[in-house]
């Protein structure tokens, strides 16, 4: 079967620039790579065809010969010595050379973004730590200084974090010569992997520290003093830079994140900077009006005037008696929700007075009259 035109294989015009040819080849190589098309038996052939085309068109001399003579330039009669620079364009050595141009694009995600010829990894940074801290609503109102105990990895004192006995410096890894990566030829491919000897660090320790076994850090509990600002709420995150886990072999220390959880309160409910408190009000006080005493989050108390005829659910606001804003900006409010309380365990005299009151109050229930008027209208509409 006749070979396809190399320009058609890559999908570019004959006047395409070198960058356009390279870009087109990368696209085809990714599209037809056998590892990405395990279910397509034709993918490998198309992949090799694209590679062969690119091997010719990326080279100025080979491209000029191809533009003049076509495929005949590489069939022994035109190129001399098997084509410009020798060798068939689809040969194994040239295949690896061409494929190396797009190696990073195809496998960069799997190799950790290191790329070809990348240097060794830096000493590993320590992990960030999380500490969950539960505090009361009063503490969230006032703010507090609290000491916490955090189990973590700290720099080994015996080797000063180097991981080597006596604090000696690590030596260059002989396997990867300090690069942290090794290459292996697998057929057409040159595969780059993390060095198995040094785990990508580029250095090894000849005599590991007996205290930390070459890790450069040891497990220990630390006591830390944490400043909890006033106004924090559940979900607030406090970052303590450099208070996390120590890095491997002298690597930088991670951070400590403290996540705040504010416990529920038995009197107050919180909504942002505002507080809500449900206060029972005697039926007589609600009907006649009067005062009730309510608590405040600062430990004080306030007297609230109850207007005559108050109903359950009515709210009264105490300005500035809520929670402080976390980063300044004033104070929230406290809302008192009235819960009208019906008396229980009535005496004979109390029952008699209430019955007398009921007889005198037949026309004094505006909310009930409104509700049952709506109910009657609803029933009448259902009948019709």
Number of helices: 10
According to CATH, the homologous superfamily of the largest domain is Heat shock protein DnaJ, cysteine-rich domain
Q: Which CATH C-level class of the largest domain is it?
A: Mainly Beta
Strand-pairing-aware structural class: alpha+beta
* Fraction of residues in H or I helices: 25-40%
Order of helices and strands: HHHHHHEHEEEEEEEEEEHEEEEHH
Comma- or semicolon-separated keywords:
384 residues, alpha+beta, Helix Hairpins, Chaperone, DNAj Protein, Chain A, HSP40/DNAj peptide-binding domain, 4 domains, four-stranded mixed sheet, three-stranded mixed sheet, 15 strands, stress response, oxidoreductase activity
What is shown here, in short?
The protein is of the alpha+beta class.
Structure description:
Zn(2+) 2 binds at residues 173, 176, 195, 198. CXXCXGXG motif repeats lie at residues 156-163, 173-180, 195-202, 209-216. It holds the Pfam family DnaJ. The chain is α+β, with helices and mostly antiparallel strands. It has ten helices and 15 strands. It has helices at 6-10, 18-32, 43-57, 60-69, 92-100, 103-107, 137-142, 283-288, 348-360, 366-383, and strands at residues 129-135, 144-155, 171-172, 181-186, 189-194, 203-204, 217-228, 237-240, 256-262, 269-271, 274-282, 290-295, 301-306, 315-318, 334-341. The strands form six sheets. It has a four-stranded mixed beta sheet with strand order 10-11-15-14. It has a three-stranded mixed beta sheet with strand order 1-9-8. A two-stranded antiparallel ribbon has the order 2-7. α2 (18-32) runs antiparallel to α3 (43-57). The longest helix is centred in the last third of the chain and has 18 residues, at 366-383. It is elongated. 25% of the residues are buried. Residues 77-101 and 103-121 have low confidence and may be disordered.
């Amino acid at each position: 079967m006749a070979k396809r035109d190399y320009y058609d294989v890559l999908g570019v015009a004959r006047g395409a620039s070198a960058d356009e040819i390279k870009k087109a080849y990368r696209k085809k190589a990714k599209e037809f790579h056998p590892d990405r098309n395990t279910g397509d038996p034709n993918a490998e052939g198309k992949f090799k065809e694209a590679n062969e085309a690119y091997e010719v068109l990326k080279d100025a001399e080979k491209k000029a010969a191809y533009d003049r003579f076509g495929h005949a330039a590489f069939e022994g009669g035109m190129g001399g010595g098997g084509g410009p620079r020798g060798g068939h364009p689809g040969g194994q050595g040239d295949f690896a050379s061409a494929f190396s141009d797009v190696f990073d694009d195809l496998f960069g995600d799997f190799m950790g973004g290191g790329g070809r010829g990348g240097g060794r990894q830096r000493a590993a940074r320590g992990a960030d730590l999380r500490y969950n801290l539960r505090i009361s609503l009063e503490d969230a109102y006032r703010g507090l200084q609290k000491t916490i105990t955090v189990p973590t990895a700290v720099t080994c004192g015996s080797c000063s974090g180097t991981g080597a006995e006596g604090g000696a410096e690590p030596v260059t890894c002989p396997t990867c010569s300090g690069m942290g990566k090794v290459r292996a030829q697998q057929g057409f491919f040159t595969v780059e992997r993390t060095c198995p000897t040094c785990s990508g660090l580029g250095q090894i320790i000849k005599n590991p520290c007996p205290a930390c076994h070459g890790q450069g850090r040891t497990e220990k509990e630390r006591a830390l003093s944490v400043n909890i600002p006033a106004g924090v709420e559940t979900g607030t995150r406090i970052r303590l830079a450099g208070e996390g886990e120590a890095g491997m072999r002298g690597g930088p220390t991670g951070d400590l994140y403290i996540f705040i959880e504010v416990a529920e309160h038995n009197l107050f409910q919180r909504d942002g900077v505002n507080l809500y408190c449900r206060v029972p009000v005697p039926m007589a006080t609600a009907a006649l009006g009067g005062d009730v005493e309510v608590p405040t989050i600062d430990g004080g108390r306030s007297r609230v005037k109850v207007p005559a005829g108050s109903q359950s659910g009515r709210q009264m606001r105490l300005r500035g008696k809520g929670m402080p804003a976390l980063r300044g900006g004033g104070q929230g409010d406290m809302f008192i929700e009235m819960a009208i309380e019906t008396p229980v365990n009535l005496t004979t005299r109390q029952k008699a007075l209430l019955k007398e009151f009921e007889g005198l109050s037949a026309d004094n229930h505006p909310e009930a009259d409104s509700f049952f008027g709506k109910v009657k209208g609803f029933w009448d509409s259902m009948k019709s």
